[in-house]
Amino acid sequence: MTDHVHMLISIPPKHSVSSIVGFLKGKSSIWVAQNIGNRQRNFVGHKFWARGYFVSTVGANEEVIKKYVLNQESEDRRIDELNLFNRSSK
Q1: Among 2, 34, 73, 74, which has the minimal tally of Cβ within 10 Å of its Cβ?
Q2: Is 53 annotated as catalytic?
Q3: Binning pLDDT at 50, 70 and 90, where does residue 10 land?
Q4: pLDDT digits (tens, 9 = 90+) for 22-60
């Protein structure tokens, strides 16, 4: 998504959620700064990710959540188009 990320990952019990999220945020920030930013901007001292995150357990709903994550971009786009249409008719 343009302003957030959805992931469905499995974390072994020996690792804390916060350590895994911190690792993912840190490594992806470095990668984005080196590859997407075309090295034109110095990201030192800048925050790429928001401070918080949301985590939930999956359990028996794994397939439902997997479909949600896979279809989220098209669903968000559909909702945005509906909102745009509703705004223009006012």
Answers
A1: 2
A2: no
A3: confident
A4: 999 888 888 877 777 666 555 555 667 778 888 888 877
What is the spatial distance between Cα 44 and Cα 17, in angstroms, rounded to a whole number? 25
Burial class (CB in 10 A: 0-12, 13-18, 19+), 39: exposed
3-state secondary structure of 68: helix
3-class SS of residue 90? coil
From the list 23, 31, 48, 68, the catalytic residue is 68
pLDDT tens per residue across span 72-81: 777 777 777 7
String of DSSP letters for 29-55: HHHIIIIISTT-S--TT---S-S----
Name the band, by pLDDT with cuts 50, 70 and 90, for residue 1. Answer: low
Nearest Cα to 74, choosing from 24, 28, 6?
6
Residue 22 CA, distance from chain mean position: 13
